Protein 1
Amino acid sequence: MSTSLVPQSPNPSEVQTTEPLLSVRNLETWYGPIAAIKGVSLDLYRGDIVTVLGANGAGKTTLLNTLAGVIDPFKGSVHFLGQPLHGLDPDEVARRGLVLVPEGRQVFPFLTVAENLRMGAFARQQAQGMESDLERVYAWFPRLLERQRQAAGLLSGGEQQMLAIGRALMASPTVLLLDEPSLGLSPLLTREIFRIIERINSETGMSILVVEQNAAIALATAHHGYIMELGRVAAAGPCAELREKDDVKEFYLGGVSHRELVDGSKQRWKRRKTWR
Ligand SMILES: Nc1ncnc2c1ncn2[C@@H]1O[C@H](COP(=O)(O)OP(=O)(O)O)[C@@H](O)[C@H]1O
Ligand SMILES: [Mg+2]
């Protein structure tokens, strides 16, 4: 497990294996009588960005909250580095290296930017490396450096999203879990956030699981994708393949070319689809 945001080179014994870092099997989570996710299986390999796409209510947040220990699954398993995680409390899951950036950011509004970032360090394995990680977060998000003494509640939505990601990075995660980072942001800010996500992944090798409704940007950024519909995985594969699937083109990319969607020159055309 990493102790700071320096590049995470896998140790030689891990290079040989093809074991996923995070392995989810037949996960089922209920709210009272309602099953929100119904038998979800997913793998995340070290160094990969995996995206989970799906419409509102598909079960994306429930999946991330179950992985992070916020909700206990009714059935199924979550293994991280070969160890079971399901049933552990969220603070223990974070200490082991899975750190969640929740939907809607949830920064501490009355604390400053710098104080919010320091709060993120509670789940670190070691205090060592904290100052250099802070510098690194400010290098990825220069706007946070400019606003370090401002109350977080006064930041724009995009800046709060950057702060929420920065705070999670201060825990020095092995896997970063991002719940709809584009929610409520302009296309321009969404692209900026995803460019930084890509940089964090390529510069540190950190593994990232990002849940999104914005299929175009997520499929352009991630290596592997899963599409959820009504609590189940409806399709999965390398993003390059998913982008070419007719269903995905028609219902997630709206028939517009992937490039036009990513550069923002065309909007997607929305239509509902139930996968069979
Ligand atoms: N706290 C809750 N209590 C009851 N039902 C919930 C709760 N949270 C989510 N749900 C239901 O679970 C399903 C999945 O929701 P969610 O995981 O939030 O989906 P998504 O993040 O993909 O929009 C939806 O049908 C939603 O209404
Ligand atoms: Mg959600």
Protein 2
Amino acid sequence: MPQGGNFARALRRRQRSISRRLRESRLFARAMHSPHHPIVAHIVPIRRCNLACTYCNEFDAVSAPVPAAEMLRRVDLLANLGTTIITISGGEPMLHPELDEIIRHIRRRGAIATLITNGYLLTPDRIHRLNKAGLDYLQISIDNVTPDETSKKSLKVLDRKLEWLAEHAEFAVTVNSVLGSPVRNPKDALAIAQRARALKLTNTVGILHDSNGQLRPLAPDHLAIYHEILEPDQKMFSFAQYDRFQQNIARGLPNRWHCRAGGRFLYICEDGLVHYCSQQRGQPAIPLESYGIEDLEREAARTKPCAPYCTVSCVHQTAMLDSFRESPRQVLADMIAARRERSPDYRPPAVLHVLTWMFLDGPASRLLAKLALRVLKARC
Ligand code: SF4
Ligand code: SF4
């Protein structure tokens, strides 16, 4: 049982976790109801980075921060479009001197605030300030156990930061480890995943793409580690880990899907232009202030030739919400089938049975699904 300050911190964490889940439920319900607003937008407050990972094409060493007033205006524009999750990325966003005010404004406008960082600038005091600003999620990506010429995002350097996050963060923390050709020792990804779990932080594993965001198949030793990392989460219900996209990416196989970037997912560069994603800068490259519903609908509908071998997982996940909205039974059946390919004895958790039952064809079950969504909205 936690005591004193620990008890107060545990209570605050619990309260914030409940608040996050309620707001996420509302997000899910809204995405189910309407295909016309962005689900996720990435914004770049500074392109400069304090590191220089050799596989990265999203940074420079010189850019100044975008003025805070301009960043707040961009958050307003995204909120006016109905954006539900705003993720601050970079470069290294913690180099922006007014990052906390940007986070506060995202929360004021009712969106979920997420931060992607290399973690180098985290201290206990900085984590407390992120708590106060209202950050919902932080993702830290760790590439190897010890620094090498490819990347300095290393467990050896960042382990103390992970301990501070585990101790002080009231927001949810995800540690992302990576596999793929630029990674010299695939076992590092397993060590990073195990360390994250030991600290009770969420762990994900990503697959590094080439400079165009395209897939490179995993070598057999990387693929084995990939499955070993996912194995302890087998009983968890998760879009990210059970869908066929991830399995195909790991095997180097193409995916058949419709990328809705430009509509459901937006990437706003440091110059305030809307792009499909960080890997397709230049398309459509329209200023955010003139981006409207026609642009959202046109770009969401457009077929992207880069889709079959795309590894940009957050765009995949927003597409899954739309697939679920359009054909829920098919998506649930696919998720169970994909899981059974890996484990023939797999028995779906009860929540999948309930969801499948809710979305069975027929007027009674359609009414039930509508009622369920209404309850979700009312609770938030
Ligand atoms: S820390 Fe992130 S933004 Fe900076 S160079 Fe590495 S991958 Fe790119
Ligand atoms: S398919 Fe979509 S998310 Fe993937 S690289 Fe192309 S535009 Fe970006």
